[in-house]
């Protein structure tokens, strides 16, 4: 299905048309999976992801039937690569940025009855096979944000990116008032209502700052994050990350400083943030395979 988004916060989206592929091939076969995924929707923001998007979407469809792709003004064949798949495709007329695309997708998910929204990147760095781990964690703590944490895999992450993420973790955990094992991972499960009406700016200027700021703003309204370890991978076909380790971390630091200054530097938050992060117990490869098979009917 396809539709156009007139801009951030646009009114009701146009009715979509069904693509030629139907949904039988990718229907979630296992009854438990269908029940588990019935209230969840997966939102995939995509900007020039023609090389990787199809593999991501087909992997997601093995676990969750409701998938919403936001083509964020791509100038390649991003949308064409999934034209035959049973997914909802929304198109931004121009590039609006990741934050605006995620929120637009979340609002469409809520309109279609979702109570939880999974966000996963279209570049293939997030393994759809880990979806059952995140959904299980969300079921156990449905008033929380669940984050797929990656920093346990130190040797698999480029050094500059690893250090930038650690730096961001310190500041964002301080401003949020509790330890967060991976503040920069975009592989998450949110309460749908929180993401559809986010307590943080999500205009095009928000860019990658949004996924950091929403953790801080959500904590202020009583919604914390829990982390589960997920696989780390960098597909050969993936394009270079749009995240700029220096520029974007500086922007995040400026945002965090504003939050800290507004709370008198929040010393209590600093103390709590230095405690050991919750969760983040390693999930073995065998456990990942067991859960993936359980929910995909394999």
Describe the structure.
The protein is an alpha/beta fold and 298 residues long. The chain has one domain: Spore Coat Polysaccharide Biosynthesis Protein SpsA, Chain A (Alpha-Beta Complex), CATH 3.90.550.10. The chain is 37% helix and 13% strand. The chain is built from ten helices and eight strands. It has helices at 31-37, 53-61, 98-111, 131-140, 159-176, 192-196, 209-220, 247-262, 267-273, 285-296; strands spanning 2-5, 40-46, 67-72, 88-92, 116-119, 145-149, 188-191, 225-229. Strands 1-4-3-2-5-7-6-8 form an eight-stranded mixed sheet, with helices on both faces. Helix 5 (159-176) crosses helix 9 and helix 7 (209-220) runs parallel beside helix 8. The radius of gyration is 18 Å and the shape is globular. The two termini are 27 Å apart.
């Amino acid at each position: 299905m396809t539709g156009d988004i007139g801009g951030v916060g646009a009114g009701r989206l146009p009715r979509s048309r069904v693509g030629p592929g139907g949904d039988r091939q990718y229907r979630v076969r296992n009854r438990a999976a269908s029940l588990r995924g019935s209230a969840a929707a997966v939102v995939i923001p995509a900007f020039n992801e023609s090389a990787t998007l199809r593999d991501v979407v087909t992997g997601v469809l093995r676990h969750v039937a409701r998938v919403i792709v936001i083509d964020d003004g791509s100038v390649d064949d991003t949308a064409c690569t999934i034209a035959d798949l049973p997914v909802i495709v929304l198109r931004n007329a121009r590039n609006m940025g990741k934050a605006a695309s995620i929120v637009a997708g979340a609002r469409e998910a809520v309109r279609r009855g979702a109570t939880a929204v999974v966000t996963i990147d279209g570049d293939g760095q997030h393994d759809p096979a880990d979806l059952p781990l995140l959904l299980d964690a969300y079921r156990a703590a449905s008033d929380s944000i669940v984050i797929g944490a990656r920093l346990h895999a130190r040797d698999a992450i480029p050094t500059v990116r690893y250090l930038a993420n650690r730096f961001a973790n310190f500041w964002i955990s301080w401003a949020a008032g509790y330890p967060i094992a991976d503040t920069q991972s975009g592989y998450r499960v949110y309460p749908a209502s929180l993401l559809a009406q986010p307590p943080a700016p999500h205009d095009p200027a928000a860019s990658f700052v949004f996924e950091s700021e929403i953790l801080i703003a959500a904590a202020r309204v009583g919604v914390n994050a829990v982390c589960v370890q997920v696989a780390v991978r960098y597909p050969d076909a993936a394009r270079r990350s749009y995240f700029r380790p220096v520029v974007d971390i500086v922007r995040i630091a400026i945002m965090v400083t504003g939050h800290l200054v507004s709370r008198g530097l929040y010393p209590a938050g600093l103390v709590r943030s230095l405690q050991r992060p919750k969760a983040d117990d390693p999930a073995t490869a065998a456990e990942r395979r067991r859960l993936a098979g359980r929910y995909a009917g394999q």
